[in-house]
Amino acid sequence: MSFILKPVDTVDTISKEDFKKNYLDPKRPLVMKGLTKDWPAREKWTTEYLKSIAGDVEVPLYDNSKADPSKPINSAVAHMKFGEYLDLIKREPTELRIFLFNLFKKVPGLIDDVKIPKDLMGGVMESIPAMFFGGSNSETFLHYDIDLPNILHTHFGGRKHVILFDYKWKKRLYCLPNATYALEDFNVGKPDFEKFPSLNGIEGYEVILEHGDTLFMPIGMWHWMKYLDGSFSLSLRAWDQSIPGKAASLWSLFQHGAVDSLLKMAFKGKYASYREKLAVKRAEKAYAKGTL
Fold first, then answer.
1. How many domains does the chain have?
2. The model's pTM
3. Residue 50 backbone class (left: φ over 0; alpha: ψ -120 to 50; beta: rest)
4. With left for phi above 0 and alpha for psi between -120 and 50, is residue 15 left, alpha or beta?
5. Which domain holds residue 211?
6. CATH (domain of 173)
7. Which tens digits make up the pLDDT trace of 116-125?
8. Separation between Cα atoms, residue 89 and residue 181, nearest integer Å
9. pLDDT of 273-292, one tens digit each?
10. Whole-angstrom distance, CA of residue 25 vs CA of residue 185
């Protein structure tokens, strides 16, 4: 028993027309190796450089702990000076990572090192570029993004292992009700298919990102990531330009943000237990019927 994983298509460059026809519209992932070839960031952004411009900034750190469905997601486990953290991930393996860090607020001029790919697709939100940092062995749990954007995820300084699944596999992935993440009792890198049988046969994608690679992840794509080296990434988010797409984003933010938070506060452990059981029930039912 296993996942059925295929490689992500990889190109050096691609035209706007081909990108839209073959990847954006059909919601297929793509790795573009040459998108950043004229970005100053590609050569300029080293850990030493980032340390020199923002080393004294205090940052929240996260680890590989499984999500507690009864508590707010993405709670920091520690805080550290940014420079000290960069030294740590270059020096030794660690689970500690930085999540959704807008370094550009601290250093506005940093955005000049990035060339926003407006000629590739519209809707890129230039005001909220997010950075992610991790030590070797740190992982990002399986989830899809709550605001349903298209994402251009560029990696720097090392390698990152990525596994992707289309949104349609939501039930079979044991997605928790009112959440955008999966039941965190299975290891995506090495799942226990006997304990979690509905995972068997799920189709997905697998890729190792290297320095300068940009991964396009379409709307609603589930992703799990593991840093193989101490390294970091930049995500540019792009809204779906259609009215239905924008409406879906707003509804997802309401349902998976406000509603979920209210239910957690009101029912705490009972709510957590209920939705874990429901996630398993839905997954096993879909698997037994041979459906998504």
1. 1
2. 0.92
3. alpha
4. beta
5. 4-289
6. 2.60.120.650
7. 998 898 888 7
8. 26
9. 888 999 999 999 999 988 77
10. 33
